[in-house]
Every structure is written in C-alpha cells, then in structure tokens.
Amino acid sequence: MDPDSVSKAFVQHYYHTFDSNRAALVGLYQDGSMLQQCQHKIDTVDCQPSGPQGGVLVFVSGTITTGPGEHPLKFSQMFHLLPAGGSFYVQNDMFRLNYG
Predict the structure, then answer these.
(1) Is 99 helix (H, G, I), strand (E, B) or coil?
(2) How many whole angstroms separate alpha carbon 28 and alpha carbon 18?
(3) Cβ–Cβ contacts within 10 Å for residue 42, how many?
C-alpha cells in the first residue's frame, strides 16, 4: 500500500471519527484522557514512507473550532503510523495550535 493512500485514508477516518463519534477512537486514548468537543477542517495532508517496516509519517494542517461562535484556530498535527495485521496504528503523534 502506498504512503499517500494510507495517509489520506487515515486522516479522513481519524478526523471524521474524532469530530462525530470520539468513542470509536477508544483504542488511541485512555479513560482519563480529556477531549473537548470540536470540529476540524483539513487543508493539507503530506506524507512520506518511514523505515523498512512500512511505516508512514503523516503531516496535517487545517483549522479547529472548539464551539459555536468560536473563531477557528490553525493547527498542525504529525502522526507516525506503523502497519499491524493489514491495518495501521498510531505509534506517535504531535499536535500544535499555530497562533499568529
């Protein structure tokens, strides 16, 4: 599977699920994790292969809105995906709000 297809499918699934049915992301978070209601708008998705195991680095940028009437904030997020049993899991990710 090529990295571009993997990254685009992952980003679409992750943010759609995050925005509409966060409980479906249960495998990525723990009971004590704190997640605020929000909506994402994805502007760009960039990717590249990562190592001999078939991993993929995925860089996402866009805007996030945290509630009705709130101004959208720019964000970027990086995921390191690794293959597992015909699918991928998140090995690591970094999130940043881009102020200014």
Answers:
(1) coil
(2) 11
(3) 17
